[in-house]
Amino acid sequence: MHTLIVEDNVLVASGIKAGLELHGFTCDVAASASAAQLLIAGSQFDVCVLDLGLPDGCGLELLHQWRTRNLVMPVLILTARSTLEDKLAGFQKGSDDYLTKPFDLQELVVRLQALHRRSAGRASDWLEWPGLRLNPATHEAWVEEQPVELARREWSLLGALLQANGRVLTPAQLHDSLYGFEQDVGSNTVNVHVHNLRKKLGADIIETVRGLGFRLGSAYCKGCA
To answer: CA nearest 26: which of 186, 194, 183, 185?
Structure first.
């Protein structure tokens, strides 16, 4: 799950990032409203964790700008402001959830997973495709009712393709899902992970759409003739 963390406190931001990444999230951090705007313009995020006290403006105003532009990315406000008036203002500006500091990391993880699930229109945590099931909350992967062990990046790539529901994702989109906006990795890493998934799950699990990118195999069924 590609997550934008908007937080100006370096220690808090790094702690959130490290904690979420342990649960399989891919995170980018913005320390200001202007930095968040640049990241939003250059990448696509599944969810956002938004602090309100930013050095160049209020997080509520940033959220209001996003909603005015019809940006539907789920946003969880994470702040020390805990009064009822603060919470009501957050929801009125377009927040999808509100959590106060200090907070429990596990609660943040579960809330973000729920936001992402609801934004995708799913009632269940499970992502499903013929012959294939993944659970983002528990990191379980099943192929033809058999559990499969996947590396973190393989799991993230497969999850991104499942969430795309058959649509083609470009290598750049998959790169963002795996590594985030700032991490500098080799240009061939997505192809390496695709290759490894095909070895583990079958050659037809992922289709290459020449000149565009990748999508789940339309007729994938491991073990079928």
So the answer is: 183
